[in-house]
Amino acid sequence: MEELQNAVKDGGLAVSNLPEKGRCLLTTKNFYPGEVILRQEPYVCVPNNTVSRCDGCFASESLKKCSACQVVWYCGSTCQKSEWKLHRLECIALSRLEKEKRKAVTPSIRLMVRLYLRRKLQNEMFIPASVTDSCNFVEALVSHLKDLDEKQLVLYAQMASLVHLILQWPEINLKEIAENFSKLACNAHTICDCELRPLGTGLYPIVSIINHSCLPNAVLIFEGKSSVVRAVEHIPEGAEVSIAYIDIAGSTMTRQKTLKEQYFFTCTCPRCIKAGQYNDIQESAILEGYRCKDDGCNGFLLRDSDDKGFICQTCGLLRSKEEVKRIVSEITAISDKELKYKSPGNQEEAISQYKMIEKLQMELCHPFSISLMRTREELLKILMEVGDWREALAYCRLTIPGYQKLKLDC
Ligand SMILES: C[S@@+](CC[C@H](N)C(=O)[O-])C[C@H]1O[C@@H](n2cnc3c(N)ncnc32)[C@H](O)[C@@H]1O
């Protein structure tokens, strides 16, 4: 712990322990909006497999497969060389696998294999190690192993067996690998591009000490594979640095459920402690509820006591359950086909499907609904992909009021 404190001290940070949260990152100086609090390279990382990506820079174009293992891609010799020390061992291990088994090597499995290989290389001093770049930090990560249900434990045990099969190290501890999978689940971060599209997963030693808040004072972004934590408001000396682990645009109930399921804690941030209060109920009904039948009314709807439907809290109009159900099932029917239309080359079809969803959501949801905002964001992305800048700009403008409202309400 002392070495870790020394490593973060010069950056105006300190590591502490809070009884209700465990370790946390504190500031020892003021940070101002936009200021970088921390930059860190991943200890290990891996691109995701939705499309092929270069292991070095995560680019998805002009790639060549590693001819030996046939699993890993590179965009050129620079990236291949930069990854070689680690991939050399990984490549030998993957090449031993039968072709069919190689297909089961998911990004999570690769991340774990790389974690063990990096530890080996550092232990044998083939690559340098430092306090913030050594496998020792893995031991201190929270695992929540005791909170896992049987299904999850069985899954991690199976994944651990596959890692064992790949590495073929007789002395390896299967229980430790399974526990490390549990650690990755609550400590690794999704690496996104500047448009917040997921590119891969990485484990960042200091970033993994930062706790969550639904009203965070910092944001985690990525420049390539480097993580950057920036202040989004003035963070005074002695305050805890917090980021959002999840989409914080959802209602308190949705956020709490996601945090409990994925990270095993109940959030007590300033937004969450308002759970059940009138303002919080109103916010939830706006974010995830329905719109008033009267187009001119901006009221939010709550379920009526007779369970006939939803009553507008401003004008008292009722929306029947049947009407709501009908529109929801129409949206679901289109959304089910959504993935097919998202594939490259199908953008025109995707735009028309998303516009149909948007039209139905405008009829059903409150104008500041999250679902409507997400649909518009998807439309914005696809319109940018096809270079329809005029319409993309129009959709960009439509999403702004939702974010402004969210910021004001918080
Ligand atoms: C990435 S780790 C953060 C560092 C962690 N506190 C530690 O001791 O290493 C994520 C875990 O920290 C805890 N945590 C994060 N944010 C929290 C919060 N707001 N309230 C309570 N626990 C929190 C949860 O146990 C969660 O699974």
UniProtKB/TrEMBL annotation:
Residues 54-91 form the MYND-type domain. Residues 11-246 form the SET domain. Keywords: Metal-binding, Zinc, Zinc-finger. GO terms for molecular function: zinc ion binding. Pfam families: SET, zf-MYND. The keyword Cell division does not apply. The keyword Zinc-finger applies. GO terms for cellular component: nucleus. It comes from the Eukaryota. This is HISTONE-LYSINE N-METHYLTRANSFERASE ASHR1. It comes from Salix viminalis. The lineage of its organism: Eukaryota, Viridiplantae, Streptophyta, Embryophyta, Tracheophyta.
